[in-house]
Amino acid sequence: MCRTSIYEARNNFSALVKCAEEGEVVELTRYDKPVAVIISYAEYETMDNEKPNLLDKLQALKKEYADVVDDVGFDIRPSRECPDYTKDPWA
């Protein structure tokens, strides 16, 4: 991994992009604290594809806890009637 300051990166950006293209991770720092990373596009694509969406996560949880959660025939109506806000409660 290559580590450089943002100031140096501004002056050597082409070389840092070339390092990233070759598969090396480039870490950019500000006052010796990491603030950004330059990676190759191929590595970025693999990271993006690995990120599951919420629906996939929920389905995985449902399968994992199938013995605990049984939502067959589950009624999702509210337990109390919703108030009618069209009527004046003080009338």
Structure summary, number of beta strands: 3
Largest sheet: 3 strands, mixed
Query: Structural class given helices, strands, pairing?
Result: alpha+beta
**CATH domain fold name of the domain at 2-56:** YefM-like fold
Low-pLDDT stretches are: none
- With strands numbered from the N-terminus, the spatial order across the biggest sheet is 1-2-3
Helix content: 25-40%
| CATH C-level label of the domain at 2-56 | Alpha Beta
Second CATH tier, the architecture of the domain at 2-56? 3-Layer(aba) Sandwich
Using the CA coordinates, give the radius of gyration. Answer: 26 Å
Order of helices and strands: EHHEEHH
Distance between the termini: 73 Å
Topology (elements, then pairings):
Layout: E1 2-5, H1 6-11, H2 13-21, E2 26-30, E3 33-38, H3 41-50, H4 54-64
Parallel strand pairs: 1-2
Antiparallel strand pairs: 2-3
